[in-house]
Each structure stands twice: as C-alpha cells, then as structure tokens.
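Severity: low
Component: inverse-folding endpoint
Summary: output formatting inconsistent between runs
Steps to reproduce: submit the following structure tokens with default settings.
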C-alpha cells in the first residue's frame, strides 16, 4: 500500500506529543500485556518472536506466536515506521513519512536502531529522504531504499554496514526489491506521460555493488507490483498490478531468468508479495483495494502452473480483511499483517487455516 492516509497530521502530532520518545513497555518474563495498536505494517522475525511496525502509536511491537499475544512495544517518533529488518540482535526500522487529510506529505530521513534485548532505541541513523523497505543482506549489512519526496528527490538504494554504519549508494533507485544469497534483486519503475509504467529489473552484486539488468524480455501489459526471491532455489517471482482495475498475475523465473511456467497465472487484487513454502509452492499476498475488505492469499503451484486464487477464503470461510500489508514464514508458520483491519493472521501455510489476532478493537 503506497502513500497511505489514515489520520490527519495535526491529530497525529497532538498524539505524539503525549508519547515518551522511544519508550518501551513490557512485563517480566515476556508475558502478554494490554497493548492496543493500529495499522500493523511490516514484519521481521528473531528468536521466535515477530516484530511489527505500526502506525498508531508510531511503534514496533513484539508479537509472541506461542502466546498469540503482544508482549512489548517500543514507541518511536512522529513519522510512520515502514520496513524493518533484524540483524545481529538489532532491529533496523525505516522512519518514512506522514500526511494530512489533503495528502500534504512531510518526510523523515532516518533509521531507528532498536536493541532487541532491552527493546529500546539505541540510536538513530540519518539516511535518505523517505526510507521505505529494509532487508537483511548478510550478518553485517542491510539494504534499504528511499522513495524521496516525489518532486525533487526520486530516491535511491543503499547498503549499510551495521558494524561501522558506513552507507554505500548502489546508483539505482529501486521501487521494490528482495535479497537472495547476498545479492539484491529489484525493479525500477518509470511513470510515463500517458500514466502507464515501465519497469527495468536488476540484479546487484552485494559485494562489488555491480548492477546488471535481468528479465530483459519482460513484456507484461501491466506494471510490476512485487518481486520476491524463493529462498529454497533462487527463483525470481514477479507479481503485477492488473493496471489497478483487475486481478494481477504471477510470473516465476529461474535465477538465470528462464520462465518456469508456460504462462503467468492470475491471482488476486494487487498481489504485492510472494512467500515460498518450498521449491514449487508459493503463497501470494493480495493487498486488495482500500476499504473494500477484499485482501486475500492465493496459492500457486509452479510445477503445474496453477493457482488457487481464494486459498485463504476457501479454508477459513471468511476474507482476510482490509488491505494486506506484509507476509512472512517463520518456524513453519505464515504471518500476515492486515493494516486497516488492525490484525495479525497466523496461518498454516499448507492448509491455509488461520487464527486472527486483533491489535486494536
């Protein structure tokens, strides 16, 4: 979900004035506590816990799947936290932007570093304008992109050494990206005068920082909306936006760019991310339209080129909710944040059966 409006800038500033900056709330022995947060966004897992960025209050929560409960909250500043990565006992959180009711945006330019053991902010690092996604590259590096202010600054992609805090620009402004085996895979989107888009795909060597174009024969009629790497075999999975009026498609390529399916398979509305169960089975997170309650999860079998479009709905007798934001698999379970429904779903990736946890009532 891009450039989301939830509440007015004035209201959020008033609320943030009552929040102790970088405060932490938790109980002894990691027990559940009474915490209500809204608009869960992106996730990272560490040592059995799942950490989730949230908009209201601007914070990171610690979610314990074994208790199906929030067990801690680390509150941040006045800007929306977005991407998050766990590396070396730290969480790296993008502090992005905020808007008023007229979509007038103010942008931040920093990463919060949260010490996991104490669950408090240990430092902030100044980066580019409007940082968005953050990924672990290896045990000593993260990758993040910035989206800029959409007027004079059009963003970039960077690697940061988590030991020295040295930041290196990769020279390409990736709209979306993922990592695999120490390299970065992503695409850069150009918006054309007729409102169509053009996408160029890249592989960037995580050590030499050399960028190479890939998927050169990309010919989808709609624009890219997600890119994910299968950690089991390095497959490149691209999902498309359906021109924002119809269901999107899922394409799968081997790591050298060879198509793995004879044709793309159609999945749900605005498919934003793929998560691999194994070499051949994928879960596709369908974001859905704002306020339409039509988010979902599809399942794709790459070996026979088929999709179960309503995988989540068929196995739970209900929809996923309003605007699905992120999905990860950790310790054999799939976790899904559904932003406007204020929920975290814990799902069996094989059966599709899910348990909903409400972060706010």
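Observed output (run 2 of 3):
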């Amino acid at each position: 979900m891009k450039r989301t409006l939830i509440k007015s800038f004035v209201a959020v500033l008033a609320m943030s004035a009552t929040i102790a900056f970088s405060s932490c709330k938790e109980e002894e022995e990691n027990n559940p506590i009474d915490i209500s947060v809204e608009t869960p966004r992106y996730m990272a897992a560490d040592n059995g816990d799942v950490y989730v960025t949230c908009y209201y209050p601007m914070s990171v929560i610690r979610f314990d799947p074994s208790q199906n409960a929030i067990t801690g909250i680390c509150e941040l500043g006045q800007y929306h936290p977005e991407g998050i990565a766990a590396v070396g006992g730290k969480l790296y959180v993008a502090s992005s932007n905020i808007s008023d009711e007229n979509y007038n945006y103010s942008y931040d330019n920093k990463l919060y570093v949260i010490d996991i053991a104490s669950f408090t902010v240990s430092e902030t690092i100044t980066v580019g304008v409007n940082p968005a996604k953050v990924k672990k590259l290896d045990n000593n590096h993260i990758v993040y992109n910035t989206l800029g202010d959409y007027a004079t600054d059009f963003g970039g992609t960077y690697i940061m050494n988590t030991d020295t805090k040295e930041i290196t620009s990769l020279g390409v402004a990736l709209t979306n990206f993922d990592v695999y085996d120490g390299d970065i895979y992503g695409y850069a989107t150009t918006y054309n005068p007729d409102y169509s888009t053009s996408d160029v795909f890249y592989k960037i060597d995580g050590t030499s920082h050399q960028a190479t174009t890939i998927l050169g024969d990309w010919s989808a009629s709609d624009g890219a909306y997600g890119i994910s790497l299968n950690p089991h075999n390095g497959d490149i999975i691209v999902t498309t936006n359906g021109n924002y009026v119809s269901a999107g498609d899922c394409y799968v390529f081997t790591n050298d760019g060879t198509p793995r399916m004879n044709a793309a398979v159609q999945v749900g509305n605005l498919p934003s991310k793929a998560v691999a169960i194994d070499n051949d089975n994928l879960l596709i997170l369908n974001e859905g339209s704002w306020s339409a309650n039509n988010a979902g999860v599809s399942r794709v079998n790459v070996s026979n080129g088929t999709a179960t479009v309503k995988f989540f709905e068929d196995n739970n007798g209900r929809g996923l909710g309003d605007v699905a934001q992120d999905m990860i698999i950790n310790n054999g379970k799939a976790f899904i944040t559904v932003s406007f429904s204020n929920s975290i779903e814990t799902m069996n990736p094989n059966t599709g059966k899910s348990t909903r946890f409400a972060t706010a009532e």
